[in-house]
Amino acid sequence: MTTKKGAWLDAWHVNPSANRDYDLIDGIRGIAILLVLFNHSIYINPKETHSVILWISAMSSVGGQGVNIFFVLSGFLISWPFWKRKVKGAHRIVPPGYGWRRFFKIYPPLALSVLFFTPIYVAYFHEPSLVLTAFQWFSGLSLIIPPDGKLNPVMWSLLVETQFYIFLPILFLVLKRMPIKTCLYVVFLFLFSVGQLSHWIFYQHGWPNTFYPTVNYHFPTLLDAFSFGVLLAGLESYWNGLPKSWGRLGDAGAVLLITTLLGEATLNFLHIDHGYFQGCLLDLLVRISSVLLLCYIAQPENPRARLLCMPWLRWFGIISYEWYLFHQPLLIWSRSLIGSAEANFVRYAMIVGAPILIGLVISALVYRYFSLPILKFGRDKHTNRPDSTSNQVIA
Questions:
Q1: Is 76 helix (H, G, I), strand (E, B) or coil?
Q2: Domain spans in the chain, listed from the N-terminal domain onward
């Protein structure tokens, strides 16, 4: 689906081995990473009173919702091949090479970022114990033992993603013999209800999810974040494509997302504490709006859907994982090294803009010359194997 205008992106893109290639999904990723960057980049003097600056700060505070968009996309993309095999009645419900594809996508850039940042963090905080934290991330022990949140705290979302990657095939194996139509609703309701209920139980018992001082996201408290994407992938597979009319739901998703973000920003601007349940509702609205945006896949020629296919936005989406891993420490160190902007706009622009640009360059280089070759190797080696059982129907 790549247009001539964006043909240069072919050199940056790995065509999915098991999923259909939707250009607009790269664009939605681009929106998600820009929201996260906006959230982490903008800062103000605590004594600031100018309403415009306070509003910009309030707007930036909702950028963390970009992570919820990433979760919905993961739910859709990761579950899609499972649903396809379920629909076909494949004997092997887990796609061949599933674990290796996840490994080659997630682990190498993560390991590289940990290797790159650990010596700097140790020197910055004067805490040699962060070497042990790095070992937790290298070895996978961070899934079991909560790691120190000082070492690039954005990595918390990788723990949540990995929990989902591990649990999803188990769920499909357990429900292997369940009819597809029933399975659609059972999988969605299970992921949604278990995530919501467990999150509330942990919160009530004083065990909230945290990313500082330790990264501690209790399983299965965020499974619901993936549930809507999983449901849409199931419907798309069951119907062998979404009805074209569903493309209009993408417009509703765009309106709902903008409205929700503005509403949350307004609450923050007015210093209204939206509490636990209101916070859960805002998260839920963002996830619903994200899955509605995904409905543009039913009508990719929709003019609004084509906006998501703009080459520059897709490029941001393609390198979004690496940019996510490398951006925040650079922003933190920039503020620490340069100091206060002292109401100087140029100085402020340098404090914020320089690390963003440096992070973008580093991320692009890491993706192009490190992650991409590994992804291609992993896809060639572990995906293109014959699946002799793929046509066997479950009894």
A1: helix
A2: 4-382
Share of the chain residues as helix, strand and coil, in percent rounded to the nearest 5: 75, 0, 25
Q: How does pLDDT run across 151-171, given as a tens digit for each residue?
A: 999 999 999 999 999 999 999
pLDDT above 60: residue 390: no
Q: How many CB atoms lie within 10 A of CB 211?
A: 16
Tell which residue, 278, 230, 287, 225, has the closest CA to residue 256: 287
Name residue, tokens 């009805």.
243
pTM exceeds cut of 0.70: yes
- 3-class DSSP state for residue 386? coil
| Angle, CA of 121, 113 and 364, to the nearest 5° | 125
Cβ neighbours for 21, distance < 8 A, ≥ 6 positions apart = 1, 13, 15
For residues 319 and 13, give the distance between their C-alpha atoms in angstroms, rounded to a whole number.
10
The Cα-based distances of 65 to 16, 131, 261, 368 in angstroms read: 26, 30, 8, 27
Helices (H) and strands (E) in the chain, counts: 15, 0
DSSP state letter for 205: T
Bridge partners of residue 216, in order along the sequence: 210
User: 10 Å Cβ neighbour count for 21?
Assistant: 12
At 197-215, the pLDDT tens digits run: 999 999 999 999 999 899 9
DSSP string, 266-331: HHHHTT---HHHHHHHHHHHHHHHHHHHHGGGG-TTSHHHHHTT-HHHHHHHHTHHHHHHHHHHHH
Please compute the mean of the pLDDT values over residues 88-102 and round it to a whole number: 94
* AA letter at 201: I
